Amino acid sequence: MGVATQRLLRVGEVHGLLTYRGEAPDAVDFPSYLHRLCQQMAAGMVAEAGRVRVEVVAEEEAIWGPDLVVPLGLIAGEALTNALKYAFPNDLEGRVLLVLRAAGGGLMRLCVEDDGVGMPETRREASLGLRLIDMLAKQIKGKAEVRKRSDGKGTVVMITFPDPNNSPG
Fold it and tell me: Edge-to-edge, what's the strand order for the sheet holding 24-29?
């Protein structure tokens, strides 16, 4: 399945999770969506069961509209795809962790981190997926950051964005 097809399927998944109140869809339980998205992607991309664990931790309740959920789902999908495709070459075992939590000051943070081989600096500049992540973060008035983990292993993709349910002031 191609990358563009996967992106469309993620958007379709959001539509299926929308809570309808009256005529218009208005809310998605983002942590539930994130769990389902990661489960499906890991099952489709990791050939050997158990070789790479994908874990989701959602510390906050997050019932948001599709204008936020669709870009965040695409961001999470791109970051997870990159980790599953590149972080664990040659049957390397490891873990990808997605964490959604409050960041203070009316902000939320979505982190996708792996403990794989890490992304070379040269790849960061050339990656279409990372450019897409940056563009989608800006669309939700957020900021994307890509860096090595503090222990030097793996990569962290971090998106900080305004929480629509708890904006400051």
Answer: 19-21, 24-29, 63-64
The whole-angstrom separation of Cα 72 and Cα 4 is 16
In DSSP terms, 147 is beta-bridged to 156
Q: What is the pLDDT of residues 108-140, one digit of tens each?
A: 999 999 999 987 765 656 678 889 999 999 999
Contact between 76 and 37 under an 8 Å Cβ cutoff? The reply is: yes
Task: Work out the average pLDDT over 71-78.
Answer: 93
pLDDT, tens digit (0-9, with 9 covering 90-100), for 82-112: 898 889 888 889 999 999 999 999 999 999 9
One-letter identity of residue 9: L
Query: Can you give the pTM of this predicted structure?
Result: 0.82
